[in-house]
Amino acid sequence: MGAQKSVHAGKAKIDFNVDFTHRLCAAMMVHSFRNSGTGSPLSLIVGSLCIKHPNLFGKSEKLDVLWDKGLSDSNILIAYRKPRPEWLAQHSFVIQHSVSPEIGIHGVPVDNFSRTQSGGVNLCRFSAGLDLDEPGSSNWSSKTSIKFEHVRPVNDDGNSISRDLHGFPVTCSGNYGDKMVVLKQESRFAKADDHSFTRFSLQIEQGIPLMSKWLIFNRFKFAASKGVKVGPGFLLASLTGGSIVGDIAPYQAFAIGGLGSVRGYGEGAVGSGRSCLVANAELTFPMNHILDAALFCDCGTDLGSGRYVPGNPGLRHGKPGNGVGVGYGVRVKFPMGHFQVDYALNDYQQKTIYFGFSNVAS
Description:
Keywords: Membrane, Plastid, Plastid outer membrane. The chain has about 350 residues and is mainly beta. It has a single domain (about 85-360), classed as Porin. It has three helices and 21 strands. It has helices at about 25, 105, 315, and strands spanning about 1-10, 10-20, 45-55, 60-70, 75-80, 90-100, 110, 115, 120-135, 140-155, 180-190, 195-210, 215-230, 235-245, 255, 270-275, 275-285, 290-300, 320-335, 335-345, 350-360.
């Protein structure tokens, strides 16, 4: 649900795209079934405004401005790209500012871990830097970026904080914010045919301490997935994991639980640790040309690393550190997008229903 409009400014054309469909169906869930820590059903509605200028200075320079705004979070991204030959790395200068609740780490699990309530910690992030997209082969692509980041925790009133409601630090420095320069390398592999596909991605982040109090760390994350046809159905299996060594702030920990991780649990309700491992398996089979049925099983663990996160938020909130969720669902294909409903059961026999909507173009 959105609108598109193109306007001419001199010799240039500016494309506007406004979209209010993202997470709309999740916001319409009945309160008792919701998997969010917010109180209002409208809190999950996110509006998006995208402005694209394809010829900023008359030499095909591109400017993209993206603004996502919800009731409890916001994100502004500005990207500027100069044209370069295809065999050279494509450069983009990116500035981003976001504010969002840190529910995955500091949220409080409730209702037998099926939901997560806000813990009163929000993250205000500012970053600026350079992205380099390397020329890809038929199956491989890579991206390198170096950015300055400033992370400032705030409470629900927007005031800067250095400790959570229990008096434990929410930054690595112990001050009202953390600063860092992060060098990030990301590689992706994708291969597909009529009967299967394989995907793999690896992200490595290195914190560079240009100043004495800036964070120094190494963080990696991988994701591997394989899909194969099984008779009329399709089986998808995936494995994700990661770890971080060196300096760590609580917000850098891996949050386990929720949609996209372990269904049946609230966001981050399984655990939050320096390391994580999550496995997912889902079998879908067609019912008709627009409706698919699905069976799934998710499991995740913090590998016993939750106690190594500063302040040990996982233990303080009673997170188990390991969790399994099983369930079933339906996938409905519409021309405007895909609608998804999942019914999940966790280790504590708590039932949760998830709703989702994704645009075809996204």
